[in-house]
Specification:
Blueprint (H helix, E strand, L loop, with lengths): L15 H5 L2 H8 L3 H28 L4 H18 L7 E2 L5 H32 L11 H24 L11 H10 L6 H20 L5 H16 L6 H5 L16 H33 L5 H17 L6 E2 L1 H9 L6 H17 L8 H15 L2 H10 L1 H16 L2 H23 L1 E4 L28 E7 L7 H8 L8 E8 L5 H16 L3 E5 L3 H9 L8 E3 L2 H14 L1
Parallel strand pairs: 4-5, 5-6, 6-7
Antiparallel strand pairs: 1-2, 3-4
Length: about 575
């Protein structure tokens, strides 16, 4: 008999240079023309106009001075675009980090924040170079929706004081419920001027988005609000009255205060920054891919995020990551490649050098209005409602993540949500496996061009001495109990047992142990045990666990298994 060996060619593992070549190099190799530069310059300017007020607003909400947000967008954003694995990613400070950054500043001070940011950059470098970026995609969708919605609630609650110009008796509490109690007690200190400025800012942003979506609504709103406060001499607090303005240049790079005790103290914050930065940046890159049809390099992107956070900390900035809204703006503005992101950072630097004195007139209520709109957009209302209706499991994961983020801690919310999502996945996979017996089996394809069109011969399914069981689905620890219960009965009546594994895409150690136990039981009962259709990977797993001759024999198909039994019967 002629036997043909099937050789499966595995795809070659990409070289290091292929995985970590920045998209900037790729774009330049393709040929970069003046037309491309003009497109990138227009897109970069558009994004810079959006990023200018937003970066300062995020910094203030994070408990640091407004210029630190600009330092982050300028230094971190430039490196993200220059070294990143996405053509269109825009880096800078992100609203998702406000809660974590504010908590770190309150507990460890600015030096602790800068050290944690630098350490998170080192962790991101390690994640990228170890090629772990592809595993970020395994975070369940309900978890991302839940923690994003929770962050939006927390950020908005932190802006209520500035939106209404309230005067709290003491420092603003961190947890949500005590914060709301303190805000309620300060309700009598409402500043009508600040409230009107905030409402004006929100109205302009919303109105321009509806009637003039191409206009830079946030910058126009903040500019008009600043003009109103200055011309009418309204008693609303501004960047100048609270912070004394912003500097007109970048600081010299400097290492934050380093000590082993401080590093240990901020280690949990650094880990949280790295994980959230990886999630946020890769989600942003995926959004850009969906809008453009391009593909990003996830590990290269994480390496760029790592260098960006290290550099941001050296220049006194806060955490940098890919930002979904600014990245989407970059794409919609016609960007060609990473040069637009680099120009966005340079434009911000020019704005700071030229217009820094004007920043003193920006009302804090206007920046709070900007963040209120950002929070409204962050809360994915349609996705939230859809997941609540989708299934009880998805609703449980969503609400657990959301409530823990809001009332406990962001990191805990992600961990609990991921754990619940994993348990839900295991439960669903365990229920998807099926064990069938004595069913009509699809015969091998024949050369007449049909697929299973021949008549079924019932004698091939079973006979008086042989039983055939077929397992369909992933056979892993979650399904071991279900399959094991069925296999316990294999020696009850028949002399020959064929286990069809051709529809099993995955075996783990627990599954192999179940098969080993069934094989030993069959041997003690004098039952011949044949495993048919197992892939090479499955065979190796079973053999490693002792599932081999003389316990069992392997066959390429059920037909081959029956042929084995026929030969043994003739030999006897």
């Amino acid at each position: 008999m002629d036997r043909t060996r099937r050789v499966v060619h595995q795809p070659a593992r990409p070289a290091f240079s292929e995985l970590f070549t920045p998209k900037l190099v790729t774009v330049l190799r393709e040929g970069y023309t003046l037309r491309h530069f003009k497109a990138d310059a227009i897109a970069g300017l558009t994004v810079a106009i959006v990023a200018l007020p937003l970066s300062m607003a995020i910094a203030i909400a994070s408990g640091v001075t407004p210029e630190r947000g600009l330092f982050t967008a300028i230094v971190g954003g430039f490196i993200v675009s220059a070294l990143g694995g996405s053509r269109f990613q825009i880096g800078g400070p992100a609203g998702a980090f406000i809660v974590l950054v504010a908590a770190t500043v309150q507990r460890e001070g600015i030096d602790g924040l800068l050290l944690a940011t630098m350490m998170s950059g080192i962790f991101l470098l390690a994640i990228g170079y170890l090629r772990l970026g592809t595993y970020i995609k395994f975070i369940p969708y309900p978890v991302t929706v839940g923690f994003t919605a929770g962050i939006a609630i927390i950020i908005f609650s932190g802006q209520i004081v500035e939106l209404f110009g309230l005067k709290l008796a003491g420092n603003e509490p961190g947890p949500l419920l005590p914060k709301l109690v303190a805000i309620g007690e300060a309700a009598g200190t409402i500043n009508i001027s600040a409230t009107l400025v905030a409402m004006l800012t929100i109205a302009i942003i919303v109105g321009l988005k509806r009637w003039r979506p191409g206009w830079p609504g946030m910058l126009i709103a903040v500019g008009l609000a600043s003009l109103v406060v200055a011309l009418l001499a309204l008693p609303a607090e501004t960047i100048g009255t609270r912070y004394g303005g912003i500097p007109r240049n970048l600081p010299f790079p400097a290492l934050p205060a380093l000590s082993l005790d401080k590093a240990i103290a901020v280690l949990p914050d650094a880990v949280a920054f790295a994980l959230l930065g990886a999630i946020e940046s890769l989600l942003s890159a995926v959004v850009a891919d969906g809008m453009t049809g391009r593909r990003h390099r996830s590990n290269c992107e994480l390496v760029a995020q790592g260098f960006a956070n290290i550099a941001s900390a050296l220049f006194g900035g806060i955490c940098a990551t890919g930002t979904i809204a600014r990245t989407a703006t970059n794409v919609r503005s016609g960007a060609h490649g990473p040069v637009s992101g680099m120009l966005h950072s340079l434009f911000l630097l020019v704005f700071m050098l030229v217009a820094a004195p004007l920043a003193s007139y920006i009302p804090l209520a206007a920046l709070a209005g900007v963040l209120a709109v950002v929070c409204w957009n962050m809360f994915e209302k349609q996705a939230f409602a859809t997941l609540l209706r989708a299934s009880r499991g998805d609703a449980l994961v969503l609400m657990a993540t959301f409530l823990i983020v809001v009332f406990r801690d962001l990191t805990e919310g992600i961990i609990v949500g991921f754990a619940l999502g994993s348990i839900l996945f295991i439960d669903r996979m365990a229920k998807s496996i099926a064990v069938e017996t004595d069913l009509p089996l699809v015969q091998d394809d024949v050369a007449d061009g049909s697929n299973g069109g021949g008549a079924y011969d019932s004698s091939e399914a079973s006979d008086a001495d042989t039983v055939v069981y077929r397992i369909s689905g992933a056979f892993f620890f979650g399904a071991a109990s279900t399959v094991g219960t069925v296999l316990d009965r294999i020696a009850d009546q028949r002399k020959n047992f064929i286990l069809d594994c051709s529809a099993v895409p995955f075996f783990d150690s627990t599954a192999a142990n179940v098969i080993e136990g069934a094989a030993h039981k069959a041997r003690r009962a004098g039952v011949r045990f044949i495993i048919a259709g197992a892939s090479q990977q499955t065979r190796r797993m079973l053999i490693k666990h002792g599932v081999k001759r003389p316990l069992v024999t392997f066959a390429a198909s059920i037909r081959d298994a029956r042929a084995q039994l026929a030969r043994k019967t003739e030999a006897e």
